[in-house]
Amino acid sequence: MGTTKAADGAGALLDLGETVRELREAYEGGRTRSVAWRQAQLRGLLRLLQEKEAEAFQALRTDLGKHHAEAYRDEVGLLIKSTNGALRQLGKWMTPEKVWVPLIAFPATAQVVPEPLGVVLVFSCWNVPLGLSLEPLIGAIAAGNAVALKPSELSPCTSRFLADNIGRYMDSSAVKVVQGGPEVGEQLMEHRWDKVLFTGSPRIARAVMAAASRHLTPVALELGGKCPCIFDAMGSARVLQISVNRIIAGKWSSCAGQACIAIDYVLVEERFAPILIKVLKSTLKRFFQETDHMARIVNKRHFERLSNLLEDRSVAPSVLHGGSMDAKNLYIEPTILLNPPLDSAIMTEEIFGPLLPIITVKKIEDSIAFVKAMPKPLAIYAFTRDAALRRRIVDETSSGSVTFNDAVVQYAIDGLPFGGVGQSGFGQYHGKYSFEMFSHKKAVMKRGYLVELTLRYPPWDESKVTLMRYLYRFNYFAFVLSFLGLRR
Amino acid sequence: MAEETVRELRASFAAGRTRSAEWRAEQLKGLIRMIDEKEAEISAALHEDLAKPHMESYLHEISLTKSSCKFALNGLKNWMKPEKIPASITTFPSSAKIVPEPLGVVLIISAWNYPFILSIDPVIGAIAAGNAVVLKPSEIAPATSSLLANLLPEYVDNSCIKVVEGGVPETTALLEQRWDKIFYTGNGTVARIVMAAAAKHLTPVALELGGKSPVVVDSNVDLHVAVKRIVVGKWGCNNGQACIAPDYIITTKSFAPELVASLKRVLVRFYGEDPLQSADLSRIVNSKQFTRLQDLIEEKRVADKIVYGGEADEEQLKIAPTLLLDVPQDSAIMTGEIFGPLLPIVTVEKIEESFDLINAKPKPLAAYLFTKNKKLQEKFVANVPAGGMLVNDTVLHLTNPYMPFGGVGDSGMGCYHGKFGFDCFSHKKGVLIRGFGGEANARYPPYTTEKQKILRGLINGSFIALILALLGFPREKH
To answer: Fewest Cβ atoms closer than 10 Å to its Cβ: which of A138, A160, A235, A287?
Structure first.
């Protein structure tokens, strides 16, 4: 295994092979196993988030132009909540679960014992760079693993923030940050890990999983997709306004739409499109009086990608609102489109930006078939008060999750597993699911020597088979009779 | 052909045929009927493929599969029920639940050593979860493979559950298709190929592999009982050709002689003086495996460590139970999974040293410990990673449907049996329903200081913050 170099926060060169070796040694040495160690790390993380809040906000603003309210709401605040939750529940998660044992095995006890997988690798993403790094870290540590974290190089300030601070607040022999670009990611994947969590695009996910297969490393992939928002008739003006508020929050207030669970496009009945668009426009004006309150596009490449989506000849005529772009500041105005062609890039690829296509359908129920024809997304949203429509959406569509009458907030609920299905990925985390993602549930059964069922043993004959038949049907009565020779 | 098969199954699945509890129950009942009515044929196929003793076929394949089916049938309604999640202050008012849904169209690739149960058991989980299934039985157990291909269409819905027979070319063709999950039982080499193929489509996989399942034998045991359990777990399981069969024993130097003597006694009791003639031992599945096993004991530094057995009959493909004492750690027999009737016994000074020995090797599918010493038991559980563990017995844990069965590290990923089988083939979809009652203006831009305070409170689950937010603080200035 050749040595490879990657840059760390201090600019010095790090030997990747050495990094992995150190993590392995730290884990094999047993330090990550105790409750005390895990709690200490989580408390360290908590202190980091509390003491370095200002620096974290600064990093997020520099990387993405994220307002610190959004940064708190979507990243720092949630992380503090998760860390506290993990500290509170750690004991419960670590406790073996007692399991029922069939009488035939008497006397015996059975339990399922969670154990750490070992040394795990977390690939984070640039759009929620703190959250997507530290939320998995919480789970990996709670589960007792040693962890390597590779933040995205596309959010370099946050990456540096993590590299500078994690080692200061946590056990740097067992929790390491590795900075760098795709080459570093590739080199990391040449090593053997006990689990890899990847958040990002399907293209790179394929490469990560293929690399993992060489070592039979289990992976979890958190991808994205086009998250649709089905918008049903709303009844009162108040409810309409609230729904629009929430749609805006779920699109433009979520890193300017650059979020795997942001609303990608809206489906609405033809006749309601005008009122929806009207309220969207007026509310957008109210919410985004200053450009300061919406994140910017992360970099030039994505800016160009998004402007290409809009400048596509077949798409440009459908722009109803916004559309202006500031290449220097990487800012794109909240933009609404009405019925761009379904085969255009903006309707076939995940948008990941502040452009919202509105697609009209004849009847709102037609949305279901529309959504089903697309790859399974990470989230499906529907604003409706119709219980029958709700039921149909849950039963007939498939997605990571479904949220009714709001968007994105499902991310904040600890009790709901967060993850995709189909093209949006596999593996789930948040809350106890984070702990489970990085654990192996070991089945442990203990027997005694007291009762011996000699019919288990060869030499075998028909009478033994008959006895086993009774036992296997849990027909203990017949078994006893037969055993005592009182039954043919 | 593979493409057509998948297309047909996708259409059946999309049409919703596999979704209802009734359909799933019908299929499971069909499988139970199949096992009841065709027990003799199944046993005969297993005997043809492996010379498997009738008792073993009944004990380990037929009856286990049937009880697995019944367990799923009984649990089905409960497993399908959504799970309610406690409400959260952060999103008040709201209700949340987790809804299990089928992944879609799944591929199950089975193995040759327990060709019946390793085919049907995963299928049970896939069906219970509401998926459409392709089962590819192992071509190395051809009688069972063709029996399954013939029987399943008679007992289950052939438009949703199909058997595809074949070897490498057919399996490769199947692996090129897009599946919603692939479940593979077998060895690490092919597992890597399966996972790499799955990576192309981002398909999740479950891999049930093997490893060297160690048996640690302490001196503080009821030796006779322990040895009987070890012997039946090794040679009573397809003559050692089982992923959780004891692979090798570790014991103390001082205890080894007694252990070996007891093993010999029990082996004679169970299989007679001439075990090659015993009807209670499976044969080796084919000549390739036979030669592999022969090579293991013919290795120079190993051949002289045989303390019992070693006989073989190439024509019948039979190898007698063989014990070896103190083979070198770097010999082939101690590096790869044996998967046969050879049992090396390795000795250490103190019994605790066995843990380090085990941990120096890849994580096994099962690890066994025989001891009455509770402290040793606790140390074992805490310090030896393995798929599953059993203290004072072997193999049995896989019969408990309340325990997850699966590997870790090189012994695999994912688990099944009982509800775990259902979960293996399901997606747990989070469903959140919000109302319009609690509208927190604090969420929305423009972001003011007052809003941020309330938002902080809400995220931290503060009740006061919730009240303030509900009361509409901060008041919007228009």
So the answer is: A235
User: Whose structure tokens read 């990657």?
Assistant: A6
258-277 of B, contacting A, C-beta below 8 A: 270-272
Measured in angstroms, the CA of A314 and the nearest CA of chain B are apart by 31
Four-residue CA torsion sign, A26, A32, A34, A40: positive
Under 8 Å between Cβ of B237 and B245 = yes
pLDDT of A206 > 50? The answer is yes
Mean pLDDT along residues A240-253: 95
Chain A positions touching B278 (Cβ under 8 A) are: 458-459
Taking only the tens place, the pLDDT of each residue in A88-101 is 999 999 999 999 98
Instruction: Please name which of A264, A252, A249 lies closest in space to residue A297, comparing C-alpha atoms.
Output: A252
Residue type, A250: G
- To test the contact with chain B by mutation, choose from A78, A381, A401 the residue with the greatest count of B C-beta atoms within 10 A, namely A401
Checking if the pLDDT of A6 tops 60, the result is: no
Which residues of chain B are within 8 Å of residue A288 when distances are taken between CB atoms? 445
The DSSP letter of residue B57 is I
Q: A373: which 2 tokens?
A: 């024809």
Are A416 and B98 in contact (CB < 8 Å)? yes
Residue numbers in A near B434 (CB within 8 A): 403-406, 409
- With contacts defined as CB-CB under 8 Å, which chain A residues touch B272? 459
Flag if A413 and B85 touch (Cβ within 8 Å): yes
Buried b (16+ CB within 10 A) or exposed e, B13-40: beeebbbeeebbbebbebbbebbeebee
**What's the distance, CA B204 to chain centroid?**
16
Q: pTM value?
A: 0.94
How far is A207 from chain B, CA to nearest CA, in Å? 8
Query: A120 φ, ψ to 5°?
Result: -120, 155
| Chain-centre distance for alpha carbon A4 | 29
Chain A: residue nearest B209 by CA? A216
The overall average pLDDT reported for chain A is 92
What gap in Å lies between CA B117 and CA B59, rounded to an integer?
Answer: 11
Closest by Cα among A171, A186, A203 to A27: A171
A111-159 pLDDT, tens digit per residue, is 999 999 999 999 999 999 999 999 999 999 999 999 999 999 999 999 9
- Strand B388-391, strand A5-7: pairing: unpaired
Q: How confident is the prediction for chain B on average, in pLDDT? A: 94
Nearest by Cα to A152 from A41, A12, A298, A10: A298
Whether residue A468 and residue B400 make contact (CB cut-off 8 A), yes or no, is: no
Q: What is the mean pLDDT of each run of 10 residues along chain B (478 residues)?
A: 95 97 98 97 96 88 93 97 86 89 98 97 98 98 98 98 97 98 97 98 98 97 95 93 96 97 96 92 94 95 94 95 96 96 97 97 97 97 97 90 96 98 98 84 80 79 74 60
Is B228 in the A-facing interface, judged by CB distances under 8 Å?
A: yes
- Test mutation, A445, A452, A468, chain B, max B CBs within 10 A: A445
Percent of chain A with pLDDT over 70: 93
Contact assignment for A443 to B404 by CB distance below 8 Å: yes
**Contact criterion met (CB < 8 Å) for A216 and B413:** yes
Q: Which of B277, B429, B476 is the mutation pick for testing A, counting most A CBs within 10 A?
A: B429
Q: Chain A to chain B, count of Cβ pairs less than 8 Å apart?
A: 285
CA dihedral sign of residues B67, B165, B207, B26? negative
Burial A215-248 (b: 16+ CB within 10 A, else e): bbbbbbbbbbbbbbbbbbbbeeeebbbbbbbbbb
- Identify the pLDDT of residue B10: 97
Task: Express each pLDDT in B325-363 by its tens digit.
Answer: 999 999 999 999 999 999 999 999 999 999 999 999 999
